Amino acid sequence: MATERTLSIIKPDATRRNLTGKINAKFEDAGLRIVAQKRLHLSTAQAGKFYEVHKDRPFYGELVDFMASEPVVVQVLEGENAIAKNREVMGATNPANADEGTIRKEFALSMGENSVHGSDAPETAAEEIAYFFSGLELVG
Ligand code: CMP
Asked: Which of 72, 97, 127, 136 has the fewest CB atoms within 10 Å, i.e. the most exposed one?
């Protein structure tokens, strides 16, 4: 197994409800280390660029507006198989399909307001981490 890093975002529906600590506890309990973290209020342009891969999807406009609506917490999680492990801890994109004990099962409000984002592959993790953090900010 390899040590990996993945980009995580605690979304506006969760920061609004003051859930950052409870969500971070889920990551740490699963053996993931938070090696970088900051709270940002994204502009529409910044959120739009981050989710550019979805720009042709019908939900893109709503997604971008939501992500720019209130603060987010962006973070880098590190651990063995961190990308897959984080996706396990988050649960399915649609909270109606998420397993018991996952972040989305416990906290997500809907498919759109689903509390967290996590990178889906090593290449996207590297790109997404570089979008928000410089190497100097990653303290493992
Ligand atoms: P996330 O993992 O951040 O990646 C893209 C986001 O788009 C996803 O979580 C959902 O919050 C949001 N989204 C809204 N509608 C849909 C949909 N129909 N299918 C997939 N993702 C959606």
From this structure: 136
- On the question of pLDDT at 109 being above 90, the answer is yes
Confidence of residue 95 (pLDDT cuts 50, 70, 90): very high
Q: What is the pTM of this model?
A: 0.97
Does ligand 1 lie within 6 Å of residue 92's CB atom? no
The verdict on whether 54 is a catalytic residue reads: no
Half-sphere exposure of 1 (CA within 13 A, CB side): 11
Beta bridge partner(s), residue 74: 9, 38
Cβ(63) – ligand 1 distance below 6 Å: yes
Which residue among the candidates 117, 119, 129, 132 is catalytic per the annotation?
Answer: 117
Q: How far apart are CA 53 and CA 76, in angstroms?
A: 20
| DSSP tag of 59 | T
Ligand 1 geometric centre to CA of 94 (Å): 8
